[in-house]
Design goal:
The complex is a heterodimer of chains A (about 300) and B (about 550). Chain A is α/β, with parallel strands linked by helices and about 300 residues long. Chain A has eleven helices and 14 strands. The longest helix of chain A has 16 residues. The C terminus of chain A is likely disordered. Chain B contains 22 helices and two strands. In chain B, a hairpin with a 2-residue loop joins strand 1 and strand 2. The chains are: A alpha/beta (about 300), B mainly alpha (about 550). Chains A and B meet through strand 1, helix 2 and helix 3 of A and helix 2, helix 5 and helix 16 of B.
Chain lengths: ~300, ~550
């Protein structure tokens, strides 16, 4: 659904995106992650037909974004980082403007606007001026705008930036709802752990390059040569550390009051044996579980690799 | 969405303008203010004439009409232009334009939507004053044909200004700056450039509604007022000399304003497609240059070729020059045209010359696509080929005008000396190539500063040398880097070699008296020519090296 080939974007002497090739299948929710300045927004702007790359090819739903711009635009719903709204328009007027701009017929327009307001949970704000909305509501209004013309692909650039935790949860639920409607979504975000909850695949960008991409679990498995475990105890945790130090295949042991974290290359059977050993030594184990690495840890790991 | 269907269903951007800028509370307050103002202006003219001067109601109403039209002009041309410039600039600044850019509406529909949507309030306020105009027409029996004629020109002028504002707003980095720049441009278009009509370059006058306002509309005024108008030299609504013939003033206005509308529209259209593109494509710049050259040369051609054209222009527009067909008049006209074309060349070169990063990106693109070089029409291509074509057009036009003048024999009766012609040609070409080379090899910022240092400062020095020490020769040598001086001096010297020479009539000499100078004027011309030729060669070598360096990086 989204294809790029050898995309390069230059700003003066700075190369924002360097020979990037990417493929996102239909129905996928692709999380684009990377530190600031990695080139995520530049890539999204190229895909959104807003800027021309130095060279390279890109297509959305089979339409070349440079050669067949108008048809490609009909397939795209774009939400920029800043997500501005026309402050002097009411919420329904704002949506009506874009519904008309996307040639939604006058007959369908009203229903479409109401539907999108409902999806964004903004029906009560229908006649409010867009400039009076809170940041979270503004983001939801802009997301509603991107859904108006029923695009096949959503390009969401940092949709949760600047939101407070409650607004972030609201937006996350809304995004999850949108993703469940079968749209192909390319989303860049700094709130990385939230991405892992609904992204089917991710791409990690670093200094304009796509360092790695694929299904989240595959990437985690690919990078995780060892797994991280936590043991929680009732009372002092030191005996756990003492026992762990005697075991092979265990490293990076960290203890906090009643909790001990460690990395392990042991398989499931060996972990079970370890747990039995702790119990046999009368260590008061409350819980022992594997802590799956999130997107954030993954990015840091990849970033560190890249730097080194 | 194509432009055509959007005409049947209201353009969404126009509707947006109506909704955001024409809410009832805004319209009530602004409407009351402007209707009150327009009514006051009408009554303050109408009532005293009827009550105190004993004029008929029809005459008094006629006298008041122009003032109400001025109010309408202020609403649409002043406030409307400001609304367009600041509105578009603000939307660009806050990244709203990205949303609109992404919609599948055609760029033309988007431009039209903004063109009429941003000043929606001003159009409605204008409409609110129309009933007053209708009342005045009813009272006065003012010719509807004349009024229609006026409004036709009025609205094309409004389009010119609003499109100018739209173009400025798309380019200018800040809303306030955009608003001020567009207002400044309107002032220049309205008050500064039309003054060039006084010396024969008619087309600037027709960028405004002044010819139809002062010329046509005032013909309908009562006798007493019309007489006052004629005293002010405002009898301008007459066929405009153009090449060998004349053109109806309304048609000429449409031509001139249509040209400017097309230029501005192409800028805005291009910026809609991609904000990072140059204002003009290479071909677009060439077309604009040809347009400016045609309009300028056609005015000059008419003055040279038509026996009474200059007298007509003189009586219509001004009292600035002697109406006699003498070499001095020809010199001023030639210089003015040359400066207009040169200014157009300078600006166009700044607009189409690629920056370092643009060249680099273009080269990478060409390399990736397997092209041997950057395509000539690309923004990243060198502006040298276009510069050479522009130079050729200018020289061909200049030679044609000079030949025409010699053939008619009124201004100059014989060809200038070969040496002086070669000097003028070499100097013109050198300056043009210097400008192109400097713009491409230095980058625009350094080029701008260099222009100030090497052009303006020598000019200031010359003025001081003239004023304080009467050091003409030293002053002229000093000012040779300043192109208007070096070109003006070389053209003056060229015309000095014709028959009759430029300074044959009286003491008003264009060249400093040779007796006072140890070196003759031609040495000054040669110094300027050789200096600029060397500078042009240096700049072109720098340009070539830089381009080669970038393309092999």
């Amino acid at each position: 659904m989204i294809q790029t080939s050898d995309i390069r974007v230059d700003y003066g002497d700075v190369t924002a995106v360097s020979d990037l090739t990417l493929s996102v299948g239909a129905g996928e929710v692709f999380g684009l992650i990377g530190p600031n300045g990695a080139g995520k927004s530049s890539l999204i702007r190229v895909l959104a037909t807003l800027s021309e790359p130095t060279y390279g090819e890109a297509s959305i739903a089979g339409f070349d974004v440079f050669e067949n711009r108008t048809k490609a635009r009909r397939q795209i719903g774009y939400m920029p980082d800043a997500a501005p709204v026309f402050k002097d328009l009411r919420c329904w007027e704002f949506l009506d403007l874009f519904a008309a701009s996307y040639s939604v017929s006058r007959r369908e327009r009203h229903a479409k606007v109401e539907q999108c307001l409902e999806i964004a949970n903004l029906t009560s704000k229908r006649t409010a001026m867009a400039g009076t909305l809170s940041r979270g509501m503004t983001q939801r209004l802009v997301l509603a705008k991107t859904l108006l013309h029923d695009p096949a692909v959503l390009l969401l650039d940092e949709p949760a930036s600047g939101l407070d935790p409650i607004a972030r949860v609201g937006l996350r639920n809304l995004l999850r709802d949108v993703a469940s409607r079968g749209k192909t979504v390319l989303i860049s975000s700094h709130i990385l752990n939230e991405l892992s909850e609904f992204c089917t695949s991710i791409g990690i960008m670093e200094k304009g390059h796509l360092v790695m991409s694929g299904a989240l679990d595959d990437l985690v498995d690919e990078l995780n040569t060892h797994r991280r475990y936590t043991v929680e105890t009732i009372g002092p945790v030191e005996p756990v550390a003492v026992i762990l130090k005697t075991q092979s295949g265990i490293r990076d042991i960290n203890t906090m009051s009643e909790r001990c974290d460690f990395d392990s290359t042991l398989n499931d059977e060996q972990i079970a044996t370890l747990l039995a050993e702790l119990v046999r030594c009368e260590v008061p184990v409350k819980a022992m579980y594997e802590r799956r690495r999130g997107v954030e840890e993954l990015m840091i790991q990849v970033g560190a690799t890249e730097v080194s | 969405m194509s432009a055509l269907p959007s005409l049947f269903e209201m353009n969404p951007l126009w509707r947006k303008g109506l909704r955001s800028r024409c809410r009832l509370k805004h319209m009530l307050s602004w409407g009351v203010i402007w209707i009150t103002l327009a009514t006051f202006v009408f009554l303050v003219v109408y009532t005293p004439m009827v009550e105190q001067q004993g004029a008929s109601k029809a005459d008094a109403a006629k006298a008041a009409l122009p003032f109400v039209l001025v109010i309408q002009a202020v609403i649409l041309m002043f406030f409307g232009t400001s609304a367009v410039a600041s509105g578009i600039s603000q939307e660009r600044d806050e990244e709203f334009l990205d949303y609109v850019r992404m919609t599948p509406m055609s760029p033309t529909a988007k431009v039209i939507g903004y063109l009429f949507g941003l000043p929606a309030r001003e159009y409605l306020l204008f409409a609110l004053t129309l009933p007053l105009v209708a009342i005045i027409v009813l009272i006065s029996g003012f010719s509807l044909l004349t009024l229609g004629h006026f409004y036709l020109v009025f609205f094309t002028s409004v389009l010119v200004y609003h499109l100018t504002a739209l173009a400025v707003g798309m380019v200018s980095p800040k809303p306030r700056l955009a608003s001020m720049t567009s207002m400044g441009l309107v002032m220049v278009l309205y008050f500064a450039l039309p003054n060039l009509s006084r010396i024969g370059i008619t087309f600037f006058e027709f960028l405004t509604i002044r010819p139809v306002f002062f010329g046509l509309l005032q013909q309908e005024l009562p006798e007493a007022l019309r007489a006052r108008a004629e005293v002010n030299g405002i009898d301008t609504f007459r066929p405009v000399p153009f090449l060998e013939g004349t053109i109806l003033p309304t048609l000429y206005t449409m031509m001139v304003q249509g040209f400017l509308i097309a230029v501005m529209f192409s800028i805005v259209h291009r910026k809609w497609r991609d904000q990072s593109k140059h204002l003009f494509s290479k071909a677009g710049a060439l077309i604009v240059f040809c347009g400016v050259t045609i309009f300028t040369a056609a005015s000059l051609w008419a003055v040279v070729a038509q026996d009474d054209a200059y007298n007509q222009l003189f009586s219509a527009f001004g009292r600035q020059l002697s109406s006699e067909r003498i070499p001095q008049t020809f010199f001023f006209l030639l210089m003015t045209c040359f400066m207009i074309v040169s200014t157009a060349y300078l600006f166009l070169m700044c607009f189409i010359t690629p920056s370092k990063s643009c060249t680099l990106a273009g080269h990478r693109q060409a390399q990736k696509l397997g092209h041997a070089r950057i395509p000539l029409t690309s923004d990243a291509a060198s502006s040298l080929p276009i510069a050479l074509i522009m130079i050729a057009i200018t020289l061909a036009t200049g030679i044609t005008i000079m030949s025409l003048a010699i053939r008619h024999g009124d201004y100059v009766a014989s060809a200038p000396s070969t040496a002086s012609m070669i000097a003028v040609v070499v100097l013109s070409v050198s300056i043009a190539l210097f400008v192109q080379g400097a713009a491409e090899s230095m980058g625009q910022r350094v080029f701008g500063v260099s222009v100030f240092l090497f052009w303006v400062i020598p000019f200031f020095a010359m003025v001081i040398l003239f004023a304080a020490f009467e050091a003409f020769e030293t002053g002229l040598y000093t000012a040779q880097p300043f192109p208007p001086i070096s070109l003006g001096y070389s053209i003056a010297w060229m015309l000095e070699t014709t028959a009759p020479p430029l300074s044959h009539l009286d003491g008003s000499r264009f060249l400093p008296p040779q007796d006072d100078m140890p070196l003759t004027p031609h040495n000054i011309v040669y110094a300027g020519t050789i200096g600029y030729a060397l500078a042009a060669i240096v700049m072109q070598i720098m340009r070539f090296k830089r381009r080669h360096r970038l393309c092999t990086a």
